[in-house]
Amino acid sequence: MSVEIEVGLENAAKAPAVTEELPLGEAPKGLVNPKTKRLLLGAGAVLLATLVGLFLYYRNRESTDDAQVDGHITPVASKVYGRVAQVLVDDNQEVKAGQVLVKIDPRDYQAAVDQAKAALLLAESEAKSAGVDVPRTRENVLSGTTSADAQLLGAQADLARAQTTYEQAQTADLAWAQANVEKSLANAELAKADLARYQPLMEKGEVSKQQYDAAKANADATASALKADREKLAQARRNVDVAKAQLEAAKARVEQAKAELASARANVKQVSMKAADAQAKIAKVEQVRAALEAAQLNLSYTEITAPVDGVATHKQVEPGQIVQAGQGLLVVVPLQNVWVTANFRETQLKNMKPGQKASVKVDTYGRTFAGHVDSIAGATGSVLSLLPPENATGNYVKVVQRIPVKIVLDPIPPEKAVLRPGMNVDATVLTD
Question: Which domains does the chain have, with CATH numbers?
């Protein structure tokens, strides 16, 4: 540092300028310098504030870039076999629920519906006829049973009369005829004896011819009466045989009437059989009606419709193609119902729970969207994979596992952004 000193004001113009170097004190260096201290203190304060801010910002946040958009991928398949008649949708075309996407040739299934309708009409006719036949059979059986009861009662009455007649012919009539025979026999023997006594007396003239003739006439009359009574006895015996035959015939008629009554009562089962047949015909009607409904259902399957609103994509069907039942044709993705699956490390889930706020940054748009934690998976991703790990080995290495967390986003207007399943995102959850 130099200082110029002028000597004398009056000689200022004359005297030459003298320049003299005067030594000054040197500024302190390092941390001793106040300016350096101030700079260091300011930098430390800024760093501390930054660290505190970062700590406060990140202390309740858990983030991961292992996340993607998920949604309901709805496959559309054919439920019936047939030839594709029309394909009414293109790849990546928006569709509405119920919109016809593919039509299969319906003629075979329409023919099956017509056949089922005809079979239903036939089954209903048979069931109606069977229903009419049941009361008619019941009336016939009831009439036959009543008639058989009446016949049995008549046969039993005839049997009782035949029994009475037989007993009377066997006892009273036969005994009376036998008694008459015995009486007539006694009279005949007596008359014959009288005639035998009158014969020698008449020859001796002790009795008149008239008395002899009277005795002879009496003997002849008693002999005739005896003969007649014997005829009556024989007739009485024949009457007993006739009465016995009539009794046996009456018994036979009773047995026949009982058999007819049993047969008539057995015919009651025909009513049950007819009723069972009618029920079978009614059941057949229901069976055929179910077949008709199945045929109509198969016919309706020839028009394949969109199950939900969304975008049709991955189309694998063309007109004229023969498709099988269960064959996939395309998929419909409902873009209005998507969520985020974030695979957090297991060490990040300590304070995480459903309902916490979350934010998702979508790589496609570079924007962040708000949401909340909906649920946390019940197992790690590796356990749910196709080939779960087998840790019961000697070369086990502990690896931090990831657990899927479902994040539901707040509604996003379509003009603002459209999230599609499979998009990569960065997910952050506020765990306070």
Answer: 62-73+335-430 (2.40.30.170), 109-277 (1.10.287.620)
Separation in Å, CA 273 to CA 104, 267, 285, 313: 47, 10, 18, 61
Give the total residue count for the chain. 432
Task: Give the integer Cα–Cα distance in Å for 135 and 115.
Answer: 32
Cβ density class 84-99: b for 16+ within 10 Å, e for less: beebebeeeeebeeee
Q: How far apart are alpha carbons 240 and 124 in whole angstroms?
A: 66
What is the pLDDT at residue 2?
Answer: 39
Residue 295 and residue 113 in contact, taking contact as beta carbons nearer than 8 Å: yes
Confidence of residue 109 (pLDDT cuts 50, 70, 90): very high
Residue 267 CA to residue 135 CA, distance in Å, equals 13
Which position has the token pair 């004359």?
A: 14
> What is the reported pLDDT for 247?
77
pLDDT tens-digit series, residues 243-281? 778 778 878 878 887 787 677 666 666 667 767 777 888
- Is there a contact between 329 and 76 (Cβ–Cβ < 8 Å)? yes
- Residue 30 makes CB contacts below 8 A (sequence gap 6+) with 36
